Amino acid sequence: MAMVDTTPPDEIMREADTVGWKAGLQTIRRVTALSFRSPWMVTIALVSTLIAAVLQLLIPVLLGRAVDQTQMLIADPAGAEAATSALWTTALLVLAASVGRGVFTTFQNYFSESVGHRVGYALRLAYYEKIQRLSFGFHDRVHSGDLITLGMLDLEGVRMFFSTGLVRILLLGILIGIGGYMLLSTDFVLGLLALSFVPFVAWRSSVSQLKLRGTWLELQNRLSVLSRVMEENLAGIRVVRAFGAQPFEMQKFATASTSALELAHERVDIRVRNTSAMTLSFFLAMGLVLWVGSGKVTNGEISVGTLTAFLTFMTILQMPVRQLGMLVNSFARTATCGERIFSLLDLDLAITDKPDAKPLEITEGVVQFVSVGFTYPTAKTPTLSNLSFSARKGETIGLIGPPGSGKSTIAHLVPRFYDVTSGRITIDGQDIRDVTLASLRHAVVVVQQDAFLFTTSLENNIAYGDPWAPPQQIADASASAQLAQFIATLPAGYETVVGERGASLSGGQRQRMTIARTLMLRPTVLIFDDSTAAVDAGTEQRIRATIQAQAAERVTIIVAHRLNSLMHADRILFIEEGQIVEQGTHRELLALNGRYAALHRLQVRPDDAAGDADTTSEKAQS
């Protein structure tokens, strides 16, 4: 059953880590299909592998012939000229075979790596594109460090499959299959002795590689934790410095780093012990071949050249046999890593266009919430319940209430960052789920609480939503956000590059930048999600005056905790536990003497509010 992007990320990863053999084969088929999207490169790589393997198998035969020709030269000086000529011919053939093998091996390595990089390129683009489209609900729950690790280490494991899996299986099949047949057909007993190390080495290699694969997956998880610690430290470096928490952060990083280092040492231990055992078995087999082969040479059953060919074949086969484990590991790693990547790529999007979705058509600009209910995927209780209200073009709606009451949720539902659980939201009578996302988000823009800026110029940050906007439009948006005077004081003006996440600007300047970026788009519905909290009162008043002057062109919704941010609104909705408990103008709500009035007294006249609270407490005690 296909999962959607509201599925918890750890469940997706757990599904991938316990992948069955059928799902693993399906994943390998998908990766193989990706590889064959470059057919001519694949053909060159496979043909080069075939030729290189055949030439490598010729070398022991030619060396054995050279040894026999040398013996003939020693035994029969009279035929020295003919023997020398034959020896030179064999030497040239060995040289040609060696050079040819080197050339075709180069072709094999180059084109197999090229195919792998093309697979990596295609998966990287698909992965990044998918991340851009996944819902806010997905990104709310998954850590960005885990996504980065998945898009680097797992993708690298899949990228290498063509060269370490498909090409290697062809190479090993030729070397072990044809090489083993040549040995057994030449001398069956000696061939068995020469191949006696193969089962043990193949077994130990496979076991060790599977162990290394298991520890590699765990190492990947530990490196993911390490990346997460580093990313959080870099993002919050000012908090770390402000609280003098460098020793604590160093200890946290050292703990994660030590955990990864210990596992890396364990992997080295597995590799060294198994390599030593495999090398020992190889030399024992070679000793047996020398012992039995020398007796056969003495008895005249085989020539010295044949024994030389056997020993050379064994030397050539040693590495391919060891690579059987790597081959097993390549298939296992591709199945696991590929499943993790494809599990994310195959997620059905929770927020997407309907097949028959049409662009949003703006006429009167009326936004309406009709019995809207909403529950976050990981929440047990609803955030909004049966909420209804409407707003018209030219109207400013203020939303206020205690933290967690659902104010920001309302702001995020209008542009479909999330979809309503029940009820519907309409713009000019059109259900926002029935229109295209592109047209909806062009008409509805939210100024977020998080004033995120990119590491680029001020101009590029302001014009992010419309990169081809004329300079005058950028300047007008900056002036509306009360930024023009500040930018004029900078030596490079609009070309000034801000630091990472806008770190070179103050909090108020960053928030004004995000407001300017939003005003650039001239939306039909403009939503401020507590986006002036870091702006001083005087600047906020000037921004508000500018926005009010343009309010006739749009619906304006302001989410705020400070009453002075929305006292000018045409209508104020007091939200509590996901429902509207009070609504009206500022004066009407004060006259109502309810929750809004109590909050007003607390913010505007805190001493009076405290006195009222004490009086209420005394009455309760009496």
Notable characteristics:
ABC transporter transmembrane region fold, 65% helix, 622 residues, 3 domains, 22 helices, alpha/beta, 4-stranded antiparallel sheet, Rossmann fold
Number of strands: 10
- Kindly provide the name of the CATH class of the largest domain: Mainly Alpha
CATH topology category name of the largest domain: ABC transporter transmembrane region fold
Estimate nothing, just give the exact number of structural domains: 3
Averaged pLDDT, please? 82
What fraction of residues sit in β-strands?
5-15%
Organism: Flavimaricola marinus
Keywords: ATP-binding, Cell membrane, Hydrolase, Membrane, Nucleotide-binding, Transmembrane, Transmembrane helix, Transport
Domain ABC transporter: 367-602
Subcellular location: Cell membrane
Question: Can you walk through the features of this model?
Answer:
The chain is α/β, with parallel strands linked by helices. The protein has three domains: 9-345, ABC transporter type 1, transmembrane domain (ABC transporter transmembrane region fold, Up-down Bundle), CATH 1.20.1560.10; 367-584, Rossmann fold (3-Layer(aba) Sandwich); 586-622, no CATH class. Helix content is 65%, strand content 9%. It is built from 22 helices and ten strands. The strands form two sheets. The protein has a six-stranded mixed sheet, with helices on both faces. It has a four-stranded antiparallel sheet with strand order 2-1-4-5, covered by helices on one side. Helix 19 (537-549) links the parallel strand 7 and strand 8. The chain is elongated, with a radius of gyration of 36 Å. Mean pLDDT is 82; it is low at 609-622.
